Amino acid sequence: MEDTLRRKLEAKPLNFESFFSEKALGMKASEIRELLKLVESSDIISLAGGLPAPETFPVEMIKEISAEVLEKHADKALQYGTTKGFTPLRLALASWMERHYAIPMSKVEIMMVAGSQQALDLIGRTFINPGDVVAVEAPTYLAALNAFGYYEPEFLSIPLDDDGMKVDLLEEKLEELEKEGKKLKFVYTVSTFQNPAGVTMSVERRKKLIELAKEYDFLIVEDNPYSELRYSGEPVPPIKHFDDEGRVLYLGTFSKILSPGFRLGWVAAHPHFIRKMEIAKQAIDLCANTLSQVIAWKYVEEGYLDRHIPEIIEFYRPRRDAMLEALEEYMPDGVRWTKPDGGMFVWLTLPEGIDTKLMLEKVIARGVAYVPGEAFFAHRDVKNTMRLNFTYVPEEKIREGVRRLAEVLKEELH
Amino acid sequence: MEDTLRRKLEAKPLNFESFFSEKALGMKASEIRELLKLVESSDIISLAGGLPAPETFPVEMIKEISAEVLEKHADKALQYGTTKGFTPLRLALASWMERHYAIPMSKVEIMMVAGSQQALDLIGRTFINPGDVVAVEAPTYLAALNAFGYYEPEFLSIPLDDDGMKVDLLEEKLEELEKEGKKLKFVYTVSTFQNPAGVTMSVERRKKLIELAKEYDFLIVEDNPYSELRYSGEPVPPIKHFDDEGRVLYLGTFSKILSPGFRLGWVAAHPHFIRKMEIAKQAIDLCANTLSQVIAWKYVEEGYLDRHIPEIIEFYRPRRDAMLEALEEYMPDGVRWTKPDGGMFVWLTLPEGIDTKLMLEKVIARGVAYVPGEAFFAHRDVKNTMRLNFTYVPEEKIREGVRRLAEVLKEELH
To answer: How many structural domains is chain B composed of?
Structure first.
């Protein structure tokens, strides 16, 4: 078979590039991603990933539920479903969001998607014209930049601090835009335990953001994969909770509270928006995986989810603690980092002049990996930051990884 | 909850339309689809659907395999996977295609997708620039028109007969295009037991199509969901079998041989094309459902698939026969239909002057539904055709459905 392949690759090649669309010609694989792919399969301590720990998957619950589902609901669980998703699951999620976040919800405000990544693509398709202004946090979720980027918006980067997006700076930018005769289409925010920075937008800023959205007539895309993973501090209501006009498109996902392999997320938004996104999704993949939807329905409806979340939290808290302690212990002066109350990531800012992309190979040579921060900035204009993950690797490895990273950093700072 | 919803829908509405992208403003729900949605939930005999019969789902096999997968492979089956898909499954499919279709295949030529619908969208994204010429059969698969249509190609419609796409007409069109200084980007064909027409492209035409592709330098997208469902006649090799240059992008799916709810298909194509589509898919949904992939791997690898296909065939053959017999018995003169050796659909052509879209409500009033043919034509220029499905409804209902449909037709023809 490999022989055939070699022949195919060598023999009179087509002019492959000539067939690609112009946009496809511009799609490049990330070098960093390729490098980190190699790392994942080695015995390097990877603080680079974004994976949940497999120990947190509720395997026994899923076994139990899937056996029951295949016994009783196989005709639905194995058949095509509607594009909006399995109605009992949408009802269960509506009621769960109402109970947990005090957001009144009806099933027509919910559409199931193939992971919240698909929601990002759908939002791009449904809302972004080339040149539309989209505000993102700086740093922001890398894959959101990829998803939106295809639709060619003009990104507006709004810096973060420990209270999340600096909404006062957004306001300044909005005034400037207005002067230029431009309009903001939407703000994208990972509001709680942000990826990559780990910070949470304060309640005051959430309210202010809603006010600005009304004043300047824009939408808010609130991506909320992590809020259930809270290890300390008090819960903060989603921005959607303060939304009385339907300006917030809320993205939820089962990836961190059940299984990322299910590729199952949801959009909670005004029925007018859901309706259009439903039509868009129809052309893209008809519907989300139904077996996973039926399992997820039982998981939410019968209280498994609420029983399982505390187990995930107990599993991750020591890892978060281990990372913060190790950073405190080993990091040289001049290095700053966030102190997340939840989620999966800590964000490091090094002294100016250090380029974490250039430093990566050196660190990998010492057996540790991280993600250089540059790619999390829409304008790739910040070089001295990195993201560390604390959910995938056990405590002792986290400590050892941070120790080795700190060693390289000390050398660099000399 | 419904009260809240009413308040939201009534109270000071946003100007929703003002937020949509221009392309999204052009996306409309199909009226026919909406009408047929209502039908599916009634006791009307629906020959309109495109659903496999749930009786053909290998529920016991899936139960057995999924219990084993969750026992032994939960860490992989519930975790994020690579964008290309679960490697053992890609290997198993490569070897299955080699065994069944004599197509030499390596795993780097295979990428898993969320149903072949997603492959259609990915192909649009990767290959179509606005205005590119894309040839489709007339009629062709409706959802392919939707998927490609988003990318704004110029569709070229090539008529079908009982031997599939009229490749000689394609050749004429290619000459014309050349004169106009235009180039064909790709031909899209459902080569075997076509949806909607049920016909199969002859071997001669397959070879001729490959020759034309070389001569005029275009690609071929071969969508092959139905070839395993053969009730009579001799198997025909996929077009991909005759492809020695990598011009054919082959789409396979588990929807008709395992479960459509799995939303699992694959693209088999030259590694250069796969590589680009992988980057495109990354931004769209990261990866396909991993639990379904691991189950499908066992299903293919351990021979369940090969054992199950004959069972599906035995289940559907009497339904195909019932439909062809009933058409023979009841249809008035002047009505023609295809005689498929497999697949799920029969295609009816009525005398000129009958508009099947206008006739639909009358037929539904008699308790039967079909899909009017118009939407299967890229240029919507044919009014007197319809698609009938014979897989979902039992034999006696098929007969009764066809009888009632014929009744209305006889009235119309008077």
So the answer is: 2
